[in-house]
Amino acid sequence: MIRLDAAAAGFAQAFTALVDARRESSADVTRDVAAIVADVRQHGEAAVAELTLRLDRHDLAETGWGIEPATCAAAYDALEPGLRTALDLAAARIRAYHERQKPVDSDWRDEAGVRLGARWSAVDAAGLYVPGGRAAYPSSLLMNAIPAKVAGVRRLAMVTPTPDGQINPLVLAAAHLAGVDEVWRIGGAQAVAALAYGAGPIAPVDVVTGPGNAWVAEAKRQLYGVVGIDMVAGPSEIVVVADAANDPEWIAADLLSQAEHDTVTQSILFTDDAVFADAVAAAVERQLDTLATGTVARQAWEANGAIVTVASLAEAMPLVDRLAPEHLQLAVDDPDTLFARVRHAGSVFLGRHTPEAIGDYVAGPNHVLPTGRRARFASGLSVLDFMKRTSFLGLDETALAELGPATIALAEAEGLPAHARSVALRLRTNR
Amino acid sequence: MIRLDAAAAGFAQAFTALVDARRESSADVTRDVAAIVADVRQHGEAAVAELTLRLDRHDLAETGWGIEPATCAAAYDALEPGLRTALDLAAARIRAYHERQKPVDSDWRDEAGVRLGARWSAVDAAGLYVPGGRAAYPSSLLMNAIPAKVAGVRRLAMVTPTPDGQINPLVLAAAHLAGVDEVWRIGGAQAVAALAYGAGPIAPVDVVTGPGNAWVAEAKRQLYGVVGIDMVAGPSEIVVVADAANDPEWIAADLLSQAEHDTVTQSILFTDDAVFADAVAAAVERQLDTLATGTVARQAWEANGAIVTVASLAEAMPLVDRLAPEHLQLAVDDPDTLFARVRHAGSVFLGRHTPEAIGDYVAGPNHVLPTGRRARFASGLSVLDFMKRTSFLGLDETALAELGPATIALAEAEGLPAHARSVALRLRTNR
Q1: CATH (one of 3.30.530.20, 3.90.550.10, 3.30.365.10, 3.40.50.1980) for A234-377
Q2: Which residues participate in Zn(2+) binding (chains A, B) (predicted)?
Q3: Distance of alpha carbon B96 from alpha carbon B114, whole angstroms
Q4: Using CA atoms, how far apart are residues A40 and A46, in angstroms rounded to an integer?
C-alpha cells in the first residue's frame, strides 16, 4: 500500500505511476491462446475433449459434455432456503433494473418525406462463460444471463469448467434460476473458441460474455469479430472517496471487499483527513488478520492499495477521473455534488450506506463493469450487449427527387459512377 | 457470378458455401500489424515518422504532421458550389438522424427505497481513420465524425494518409464541415497505434473508428481494449430482394453500386422470377461495359456475385437472414411485409425508389455497418459508440436493512467474507 499526499512534492509523478500501473498478468498468454483457438477451429470436438482432459483432468466422453436442466433444477431446489431466497431476490432485482434498458424502436417520416428509423432485435444465441474454482460466482451468472434473457435471446449456452469433474451446485442453481438453456462442462480458451466456432454438440453462438482468467479474456479478444463480446476484462478496482465522518472500519471493509477477489485487484481511498486515513489503514490491518481471504487480500492491498490525502474531496475528483475506476464509492453526506463531477466510472455507489458489495449482488445494476481505466470508453454489461440495431429508410418518387441530385453529385465526386447511376436511372422521367 | 435455384438439387450445400465464403484478404497481416503496433508503442513519434516515410513516401519533418484548420476551411470554401450544397445537405441530414440516438439518463427510486439509475457521457477524445487513395470518401468522414460530435466528444482527431504528400481536398472540406478538431497526415496501422498510444504531437484518444484496409482493420482489432473501436470491418455486401415488376436496369445498377467499391465485395439478388433474373444478369453485363469502375466491379461480380431464384420472396427471407447482409434492399411494392421477417441486417432500404446509394450519402442513417455476417450481433455506427454509461445506486439505512441480509448470504456462499463484512458492519445496531 502506498500513501500519497496531493500537496506533497512529487505527487503528480507518483499518481501518474499509480494510474499507469499495469496489473495484467505478465505471462505471455497471447500465443498460447492463439494456438488453442486455432486447434478448436480446426479440430472442433476432438480438440476441446483433449484440452479438457489435459487442463481440467476429466474425460468428456465419460462425464458427458452437458449438464441436464433437471440437474440444475435439482441443485436449485436443494439450496439452503435462506440462500435460495437471497438468490431469488437478486434475480428479481437484476431483471427489474435491466428491463428498463430495453431500447425503443423508431419509425418516422421527415419533412422531405423520407421514412427513417431503427429496429432493435436480440441476437439468436449467446454464450456465457462462468469460471470454475474459487471464482465460480453464481452472482456473475445472474448478471450475465438475465440481461441476455431480458433482451430476448432464445438460446443461452453456458460453459463452465468442472476441474477434476467437480461441479459447483451453486452455479447450477443460478443457471436454473436465470433460465440458461444449455450448460457445457468445459472452460478456458477452448470453451470460448467452442462457443464461437461450435464444437461437437455445441452449436456456435453470436455473442460471448462472462468473466474469466487471462486466457479466457484473451480468447474473447482474439475471437472478437467472429462473435460479439462484452468487453476486454482486466483486474478490477475500487476507489472510495470518504470524509472523516465515516466509520474507518466500514471503509476498511469496503477496500478489502475488492482486495479479497484477487491479488491483482486495486483498492484506493481518497480522503481529506490524514487522521482518518491513518485510522482506515489501521483498520485494514486489523481486519486482514481475521479475514478468511486475508492472504489474497493482504497481497493485493500491499502491492496495489493506496491511500491518497487531498485538501478537499472536490480536488479528488479529477484524480478519480484519471483512474476511471470500475467501482466508485462516494461515502459522504451529499454524494450528488461529487457525482456531478465524475466523468469516468463504471458504477458509482452513493452515500455512506451503499457499500460496493450491495451492487455485486442484489441492487440490480450490472456488476460486469469496465476495468483497467476502460470506463473512459466502455460501459457495464447491459441488455444492449445482446441486441443489435437495424437502421432503415424508405423513399418514394418525390423524396428521391429531393435527395437524388445531391447523392449523384457526391457519388461522382467520390468516383463511384454505379452509385450515381442507381439514382439517375430512377430519376429519369423519360424512360 | 453464380446462379442458384432454391428448388434445385444441391441448393442447400451451394447456399451454405455462399454464406461461408471467406472474402478476407488471405495475406497474413496479423504479424505485420503486431510489429507496427509494438514499434509505435515503444518508439512513438520516431516509429510513426519512419513508417510514414517508408509506406507513404513523405517526410513528416518536412510536410509537418498536422493540417491546419484554416487549410480545411479553405478547401471547403473552394468546393464547387453544387458539391458544397450536396455535402451540406448530407451533413445536416446525418446530424438530424443521429440526434435521435442520444440516450436518455435515468434516476429513480424503487419500492425498496433504493435509488437507481444510469448516466451517459461522451468519451473525452475520439480518433477517426479516413483512408487515402481511391477509398478517400468524404461521406465516410461525415458518417464517423458527426455521430462523435452529436455525442458531445470534445476532441475529434482525424488521421488520413497523404501518400507522396498528396492531400485530398474533398476530405479536408468534409473535415471542416463535420467539425473535426485535428487532422494528422498519417495512415495505416501506425496511425491507429498513434491514436491509441499517442505519438509525437498526437495525444492518445479513447475510441478509434473509421474504415480502412486490412492493416487498419487488424490494428483496430489488436488495439481493442486499449481503446474502444467501432467494429471489425470486412468486405462489404448488398442483398437485393426484387420481384419482376422492377426495371432490371435499376436493380443491375444497385448490384454494381456495391461491386464497384472493391473486388472483394459481394452483390446478391434474390428474385422469384427466372426471366427477370436473366434480364438483370444481362443488364449487369451491359452496364459493366460502360462503367468507369468496370474493371473492379466486374471482378467483384464474377468472383462473388450471385443470383438466387426462389419460389416466393417470402421464402428468400430466411436465406437473407443467414447472410445477415450489411445492406438489404427490398424492391417490392409492400416492403414492410418482408421487412417484418428480417432478423439480421445492417441497414434495410425499403421499396423500389430507395437505392442503397441514397443511404451511402444523404438519407441520414449511418453507412458504417456490420459486414461479413456480423449483423448477427453488431449494429451500425451510432452516437452510442462515442459514449459510455455509468450506472449508480444509493441506499439509505432502511434500504440497506432490506437488501443487506441477502447480500451477506450470497457473499458468504461465494466465499467473500469482506464483502459480507462491509454490509454487516453497517447493519449492526449496537455499534
Answers
A1: 3.40.50.1980
A2: 258, 261, 360, 419
A3: 37
A4: 8
What is the per-residue pLDDT for A100? 97
Strand B237-242, strand A228-229: pairing = unpaired
**Chain A residues whose beta carbon lies within 8 Å of the beta carbon of residue B382:** 389
Question: Rounded CA gap, B367 and B347, in Å?
Answer: 8
Number of Cβ atoms within 10 Å of the Cβ of A325: 30
Catalytic residue (choose from B218, B237, B260, B326) = B326
Distance CA A391, CA A136 (A): 39
Residue from A124, A247, A323, A388 whose CB has the most chain B CBs within 10 Å, to mutate? A388
3 state SS for A13-30: HHHHHHHHCCCCCCCCHH
Contact call for B376 and A422, based on CB within 8 A: no
Kindly determine whether residue B293 and residue A417, on different chains, have CB atoms separated by under 8 Å.
Answer: yes
Q: Would you call B400 and A353 a contact, using CB atoms and an 8 Å cutoff?
A: yes
Asked if residue A159 lies in contact with residue A111, where contact means CB atoms within 8 angstroms, the answer is no
**Who among A134, A345, A422 is closest to B257 (CB)?**
A422
- Rg, C-alpha atoms of chain B: 26
In the sheet with B237-242, reading across from the earlier edge strand, the strands are A106-109, A115-122, A387-394, B347-350, B327-331, B237-242, B266-271, B306-309, B2-5
- Quick one: DSSP state of residue A224? B
- Sequence-distant (≥ 6) Cβ neighbours of residue A133 within 8 angstroms: A161, A163
Q: Give residue-wise pLDDT tens across range A81-133.
A: 999 999 999 999 999 999 999 999 999 999 999 999 999 999 999 999 999 86
| ipTM greater than cut 0.90 | yes
User: Cα(A237)–Cα(A215) distance, rounded to whole angstroms?
Assistant: 20
- CB contact at 8 A, B25 and B262: no
In Å, how far is A341's CA from the nearest CA of chain B?
12
Same fold, A29-229 and A234-377: yes
Domain boundaries, given as residue ranges, for chain B: 2-24+234-363, 29-76+122-229, 395-427
Q: Mind listing the pLDDT tens digit for each residue in B248-297? A: 999 999 999 999 998 999 999 999 999 999 999 999 999 999 999 999 99
Domain A29-229 in CATH: superfamily? Nitrogenase molybdenum iron protein domain (3.40.50.1980)
With residue B15 as reference, give the H or E element that holds it: helix B11-20
| Tens-place pLDDT, residues A323-352 | 999 999 999 999 999 999 999 999 999 999
